[in-house]
Amino acid sequence: MEKRRLSFWEIWNMSFGFLGIQFGFALQGGFMSRIFQTLGADIHDIPIMWIAAPLTGLLVQPIIGYLSDRTWSPRWGRRRPYFLIGAVLSSVALFFVPYSPALWVAAGFLWILDASINISMEPFRALVADKLTESQRTYGFVVQTLIIGIGTWVASNLPWMVSQLGVSDSAASGVIPNSVKVAFAIGALVFLISILYTVFTTSEYPPEDMEEFEKEKAKKNQFIPDILNNIGNMPLTMKKLGVIQFFSWFAFFTMWSLANPALTEHVFSTPAPIQSAYDMTNAVQAEAFNTANTAFQKSSNLVGSAMGVYGLSSMVFALLLVLYTSKRRVNRKFVHMFSLIIGGIGFIYMYYTSPENLKYCFVLIGFAWGSILSMPYAMLSSSVDPKKMGVFMGIFNMFIVIPQIIAAVGGINYISGLLGKEAINAMTVAGISLIIAGLCNLLITNKNAVSYQG
């Protein structure tokens, strides 16, 4: 089937749902550790509480990719039913997360939230490859990155924004502040509306050979053998990209799980107070705890706001690439390599920065983030069978979640512990990991992956 070139606004419409997905991920990435700390979690226990995120991705994305490859509805298409299901579940989970009364409830909500977001996210990646010609795919993934950047910046600033409007940052011990609750409620609404916008403004191509498609779909008990077969026969370029993804996502998981405790402690000097260190029956001690807790919550708002800058700079990065790739080819390998190295420098500089200059660290990290969200997928989509795009995009997610699982079960604590006990050492480890990821781009030699010759 001959695909026509799509206009900017058609690509924008099909990618707009990523705004909501990124609201979900940014609120999760920027504030779940804050919620865990508020509910009494120790800093060293936080990474393992985050294991829900990569584990659900490892299980959900290949399954959804496989199922969406074998789905077709004349009205709803192939990928859109999964957008919608994931959006409804994610919106419900987002709303209720900050109302968690205990640590185990918050950890459980993280499982539900991340699984639901993954149901929506994987088909969005496949949709770009489904709808766009080879020559437009870099452009398409970069437009997605532009929308993701907008979502990251706005969502990361939401608690600070609503706090500025007068919503309180103060709360009793073990209770999430209202500023966070309102932010998550707004995120839930944006998630649902943005997905609905894409569902109702985007059409999909039917399978090229409907008879063959129906025969393939009718086969029983093929899921596990097909997944294993595709894993065993993944293209060499995909394996090389997997090495890059490993170090990239180890770095970003470290940021999401430990940036708030590391930066509130090292940069703002307002670590989360430990309630057991205060005699809450003593009025003076109780007041001291409340003062320390409010200072921690306010500096957490500022950390979240600074983190939002990486969404803003990734948006600028994406906008420049949109303008460039709409007319010209781009060397994906070198763009990705230099972007990751720049991001690694941003992480390392956190050790030396001040509260006023923290945002500049995240500016550099944003270039890495913008590239991570576009270049690997553009390189991958030029290297795999289009008929298996969904399942390969799902399998590719293994290279995202495995490093996160390793980080969660002790990898971060062990490696950062080699540098010392301070939480900020985790950010240094993230920087080194991202620089290694950048250098690994030298492994990519497939000419179509590097720059599609269309």
Automatic annotation (TrEMBL):
Gene3D superfamilies to which the protein is assigned, alphabetical: MFS general substrate transporter like domains
Subcellular location: Membrane
Transmembrane portions of the chain: 12-36, 48-68, 80-97, 103-121, 141-162, 182-200, 241-259, 302-322, 334-352, 358-379, 391-412, 424-444
Keyword Membrane: yes
Membrane topology note: Multi-pass membrane protein
Keyword Transmembrane helix: yes
Keywords linked to the UniProt accession: Membrane, Transmembrane, Transmembrane helix, Transport
SUPFAM superfamilies assigned: MFS general substrate transporter
Protein name: MFS transporter
Natural source organism: Jejuia spongiicola
Lineage: Bacteria, Pseudomonadati, Bacteroidota, Flavobacteriia, Flavobacteriales
